[in-house]
Amino acid sequence: MFKAAINAELLKDAIASLAVIVDEVRFKIKPEGISVKAVDPANVAMGIFELGSSAFEEYSADECEIGIDLNKITDLLGIADRNDTVRMELDEGSNKLLIDVGGLSYTLSLLDPSTIRAEPRVPQLELPAKVVLNGADLRRAVKAAEKISDHMLMGVSGDTFYMEAKGDTDQVRLEMGRDQLIDLKAGEACSLFSLDYLTDIVKPTNKVNEVTLSLGRDFPILIDFEIANGAGRISYLLAPRIESD
Amino acid sequence: MFKAAINAELLKDAIASLAVIVDEVRFKIKPEGISVKAVDPANVAMGIFELGSSAFEEYSADECEIGIDLNKITDLLGIADRNDTVRMELDEGSNKLLIDVGGLSYTLSLLDPSTIRAEPRVPQLELPAKVVLNGADLRRAVKAAEKISDHMLMGVSGDTFYMEAKGDTDQVRLEMGRDQLIDLKAGEACSLFSLDYLTDIVKPTNKVNEVTLSLGRDFPILIDFEIANGAGRISYLLAPRIESD
Amino acid sequence: MFKAAINAELLKDAIASLAVIVDEVRFKIKPEGISVKAVDPANVAMGIFELGSSAFEEYSADECEIGIDLNKITDLLGIADRNDTVRMELDEGSNKLLIDVGGLSYTLSLLDPSTIRAEPRVPQLELPAKVVLNGADLRRAVKAAEKISDHMLMGVSGDTFYMEAKGDTDQVRLEMGRDQLIDLKAGEACSLFSLDYLTDIVKPTNKVNEVTLSLGRDFPILIDFEIANGAGRISYLLAPRIESD
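ok -> structure tokens follow
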């Protein structure tokens, strides 16, 4: 059993944060909320998604797992007004999700969860440095780096967080000191990341006040922020690239 | 003789409602206004257009017929500001239309009406059901249906008007009861229509308060609404598709 | 030595006015400001650009010449907010320009000026007619002409300035009398210009109050207006086309 109602804009944003990683996902539904863990097809980026029941206007659920094509949901939500309420109900017999938005009733066939890549194990990482910054600052640095290169260095040096991209001839660097950051835990950290992935991942951060980055030396980065006004959370784990120079 | 002046925005909207059916049309000009009847090249959709002289700021005309390339007019009106006045005068000797918009004088060669498909005969149909609804509701249902399928069922069942589209696995349905509609004349009606055509036809309805649909059982649909603040009217007649299941 | 700070929007607009002519330019830097003279690869249009030191928030420079790829600068400025200050400093040793925008530090490799086409000689022309008009009027006429043809006649006849484009069947003409113009110096003038070039050149004039056109009979046109709130000036010299009819 699963029956829920949620604001359309809020669901759209939550789905968008997942869709940057994968197209088809297993939603793990529990009485306390919905969670997803997924890796991208190339095994470079992982998304860990949690949306608590308090994000919903109505929510009642037994434990179950459903398979969703995120593109279809995104498409359907494109019709909704931002203040519409989206009502969902699982029809277990037919394996369909009934979705009602502003008078329109959708009957969405679900995917068989067993055909979707299994939930990955989240590695336990010791990431010594932590940086909390405004999402718009992060996005701006990534956009600037894209103009120059296809990868970007991120690190902490003393009390300064930095992002740097080098092209064949040009270079861009952003440095933020402790006073420009929301929080900083100093630690040895410097890793190189693919901008292909970073660009997608930071897209939803533009409206986010606090994004937490956890970093190490040639280690994955953990990019982490609240969604749904604090009722949910998305974390991305992105593998580093090996520096070739 | 034909000489007229009209608000640019109003003319743009009127032309746009015709352009969804055909590119080249015969304008029938009379002292009381302008009318067009045209079918699309595939004989699936017909447009019946009327723009009374009261839609114009100035209007004086003898009976005549001119051939117009709607794409050219649309292009030229693209330069106009929405509050500009468009002045038109027919130069019968040279078969040109002189158009003046905000100081720019266009000389537009007219098409020979005899090279344009003749005005079609409008079939007399007995369409038992009639639905009056808000144009934005109609457009929204058609946009939702497009996500799912390339055709759409429209019908009346008891006191309910419904639109439904079925894809290979998914389905969308909008039901509107008598109290959600502006008016309803119940009657047996259920026909299937191509979304290729419906999408174009409902595009101009977004700003229209009242759209009248006349429906029957496997019969054409008549989609009908006012243009030019009531000084004109456009009706579309769209042939049904045969249901294949 | 070259060190300067300038409003991002102002620099963006100034660069855009140059970029319609060429991609790579030699900036001539002097204590009193920056100047550029460049011709397009086909030798049809010339741009003469001047940006005085008063356009800058800070400015100090010795005489020097640097080679710039305008596309790169445009790209970088795309990240800036309109009220950001852009700080630039020349690093002569490495032949790089250090650019700082809102905390982001770019290191931009400069081009070797000797690899860029030398500054052209500006021909001394006797252009008998002069027209001063609003930039938006000019742009509107050019946009209308594009719908009809790929070249455009511009001239002065008595006290009237006119622009005219003829297509195979259609024609558009704008006439502006002395009272609709900001200023007019009558003189024999009528020349034909390629709309490919005019379209680009008039793009920046949309926000410009006064554009001065200097014209002759089958002569180049000089299109001239202030940039940077009067602290700079851009002039375009466009060669005429030979009328083929």
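The CA atoms of residues 165 and 171 of chain C lie 6 Å apart.
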